[in-house]
Amino acid sequence: MTGQQAIFREDKIGETELRIWLDADATPRDVKDIVFRAAHRLAVETVVVANQRVPIPPGHTMISAVRVEGGPDAADRYIAESAAAGDVAITSDIPLAAILVAARVVVIDPRGYEHTSETVGERLSVRDFADSLRGAGVETGGPRPFSQKDKQAFASAFDRALTRALRNRVT
Known about the structure:
Layout: E1 19-23, H1 29-42, E2 45-50, E3 63-67, H2 74-82, E4 88-90, H3 94-102, E5 106-108, E6 114-115, H4 120-135, H5 148-169
Parallel strand pairs: 1-2, 1-4, 2-3, 4-5
Antiparallel strand pairs: 5-6
Helix pairs in contact: 1-5, 3-4
């Protein structure tokens, strides 16, 4: 976390607090809005990480932004180093998802797919295969455009994951 302020996570009685991590570099605006509303409504600390400035809506005191420098994977590294077991992370980056799942962080992609220890390895293999094809000059296409159905799937998956994470934090 060179050049970044360390984030400490302890409440008054010594238990760690839930934190939402948003990999904001490639996250659709609709997904950010859903996360911002939930963070505000539930008073859950949320950290938006990007390698560019990300505007935070006024009045959302539970949301902070961290701007990282150092290339395209700097935000991913920051989240991987800072997230803790039981946190919730939103990212479309499969390698980051694999790291976070191994650290027992709940990971959801912007289309509402929740990565698990059972599924992230396969997704990583498919991603690596497609990457090798692109490296060999094969056109693999990109992801389909973000749709209303994707937005609804994300909102539903995020709500389930956040509810589960909050319930697990209660002792």
